[in-house]
């Protein structure tokens, strides 16, 4: 049996951030490893690196798997920014072709082979959320805290 908590409301990350870097990736399975590798270069030996890579792996995997394919829907964006000493990670994907549904962190059945990604993000992050951009893309974000 799968337990599903209430859906997350659409929410935006804090606006007062300083961009570290942004990377556009082709939407395919190799994007996940590439994103983790590039993030390691951005954060170097920062203590938040391991947790950041876990979050980025989950968000990029979802961005590769879930949106529908089609013309103009081939890329995703990974963005990292500082919020004072906290780290803001964002993954922007093409979004849904139809009605936008807000992803939520759920508890999959023990035998399930997938469905744990946003639960992992929720567990590592101080805050996380999602919203639809003005251009219709989906932005899923997470904030990692040093404390």
Automatic annotation (TrEMBL):
Coiled coil: none annotated. Signal peptide: none annotated. Residues 28-127 form the Histidine kinase/HSP90-like ATPase domain. InterPro entries: Anti-sigma-factor_SerPK, HATPase_C_sf, HATPase_dom. Transmembrane segments: none annotated. SUPFAM superfamilies: ATPase domain of HSP90 chaperone/DNA topoisomerase II/histidine kinase (SSF55874). Keywords: Kinase, Serine/threonine-protein kinase, Transferase. One of its GO terms (molecular function) is protein serine/threonine kinase activity. This is Anti-sigma regulatory factor (Ser/Thr protein kinase).
